[in-house]
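thoughts on these tokens:
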Amino acid sequence: MNHDRMAVLQGMMSQGMIPVFFHPDTEVCLKVIQACANGGAKCIEFTNRGDFAAQIFLDVARHFAKADPSVIMGVGSVVDAPTAGLFIANGAKFVVGPILNADVARVCNRRKIPYSPGCGSASEISAAEELGCEIVKVFPGSSVGGPEFVKNVLGPMPWSRIMPTGGVDASEESLKKWFGAGIVACGIGSNLITKELLAAKDYAGIEKKVAETIALIKRIRGQ
């Protein structure tokens, strides 16, 4: 499976929605990620949020490299270069962060790994683009101004590719507003992989929800 930088960026944009997920149990991670992939979300953001997250990520990435090489594992919640380097060594194919960090951009560029830093202003988005970021994360999406913010940024900066996380729901109303504003993709966490579905270990339910969300985005985009 081709997981080079261009293919990963294309995969993120064509998918339109990146599931954002972390769980301390490796087995649960494997089942959730497979459910997402089966539902059509092959690019998945595993958030670096718990103890030994890097080890869990390594186990998961190793598993999918053999079991389903179409899965593209990315890492989220990365705020510094050493962490980015660790996860890249463990198989991360894209890196996402809540903030913009120039050292992370350099590490990712050196290895041709897409980096989507969290930005909350036009100046930050521009700075990220100067550092080579193709898809810029807007975070927290709802707090920095929501779809209206995206629309206002794309007016003078139509070349920007924006992916909001935080404040995006897997609902038609929410997705219509965001994609209508001009985003290329969005990250969705607990609004997609809900606590209820996880508690029930309803992996078929997660697959269904992911498939429905991706189909909804295609419909909104007029594909």
